[in-house]
Amino acid sequence: MTGQTQDLLHQALLYGKDEEYLATAVPYLREGLAADAMIIAAIPNRCYTAVRDVMGDVMDMYAPAEDFYRHPVRTIAQYLDIVRGAQAEGRPVRALAEVQWGGASWQTREWGRYESLVNTVFENRGVSVICSYDRRVVGDEVVDHARRTHPELLEGGMFPAYNNAFEHTELYNARCDKTPLPPVPAEAVRMSVGSLDLAGLRAFVKDHATRRGMSAAVIARFVTAVNEVATNAVRHGTPPVEVALWAGADDVLCEVADIGLWHPDELAGYLPPENANSPSFGLWSARMLVDLIEIRAGYHGTRVRLLARKED
Q1: Which of 25, 88, 259, 266 has the most CB atoms around it within 10 Å of its CB?
Q2: Cα–Cα distance between 30 and 33 in angstroms, integer?
Q3: Residue 295 belongs to what domain range?
């Protein structure tokens, strides 16, 4: 891929042997070098070592996948910084990626959402990316997400094939947001919010998060995120605004609900805003502060659920 105005190339490589991985990665990188592309690798160390043994150290940037793919919204922000830097130099970007999907169902869903958002966020930015999926590691559910989020598939190092399972970002996100949220448990503690004076809410969240074993550093971020979401609900929602908080084995959850109808778009709060005055700043900053935010909006009201693991 050459030139900064070409369409995004976003392919999924499904492989089961290291030889299959190299059969795709090596010529892909050689093409990038010939085009003076910025070469980025966010892949497991095993894959990086295999490529380096064949080609030498040709990467402009290498980030171990286990470190780079820790939080979908932060990862998008990191990639955007990289792409903007390449654009400033007049260079296209050619990336090798292997997302670390995690084990929980919400992690799988959110990393799938991330893969889908790539199709919109990096459109027309001179970006080419191959996302690899090691069948020895990932299961059928993750492969299904790969098929739904990549316009083209590379099966075992073969030539790209049209993917008739692909779903555009809007449709994919809509499906994610139709996944029912588990009900708020009976043991949740609750508080009503009626004004923008949220000092009482912040104290309420801090107190109960502390009782549930959340570390001090995580509590500070969690309280700020809940405050941002509650502020949006009071300003733009329809009262009453109700807050519920409860704990799981390893995390603390909070839901902010009102009876207003909201129609968030597929990029709501996923992209870094231009400045702190942007309408999306509050939701984006909240997403950056906690592990997960899920939104369910419809004629029965809007529910925003936050999840933060008790320890970093």
Answers
A1: 25
A2: 5
A3: 189-309
Report the relative pairing of strands 241-247 and 189-193 from DSSP bridges.
Answer: antiparallel
Q: Is the dihedral of CA 74, 78, 79, 83 positive or negative?
A: positive
Domain boundary among 176, 206, 235: 176
Q: What is the DSSP secondary-structure string of 74-122?
A: HHHHHHHHHHHHHHHTT--EEEEE-----SSHHHHHHHHHHHHHHHHHT
List the CATH number of the domain containing 234: 3.30.565.10
Element (H, E) at 303: strand 301-309
Query: Taking the alpha carbons of 251, 257, 115, 277 in that order, is the dihedral positive or negative?
Result: negative
Q: Cα(106)–Cα(120) distance, rounded to whole angstroms?
A: 21
List, for residues 25-40, the tens digit of each pLDDT value: 999 999 999 999 999 9
CA distance 197 to 195: 5
User: What's the full length of the chain, in residues?
Assistant: 312
The rounded distance, in Å, linking the Cα atoms of 271 and 73 is 7
What is this structure's pTM? 0.90
Cβ atoms of 36 and 26 closer than 8 Å: no
- Is residue 189 a contact partner of residue 244, using CB atoms and an 8 Å limit? yes
Q: Which residues contact 165 (CB under 8 A, 6 or more apart)?
A: 144, 147, 148
* Cβ-based neighbour number of residue 211 at 10 Å: 11
pLDDT in tens, 158-211: 667 778 899 999 999 988 888 889 999 999 999 999 999 999 999 999 999 999
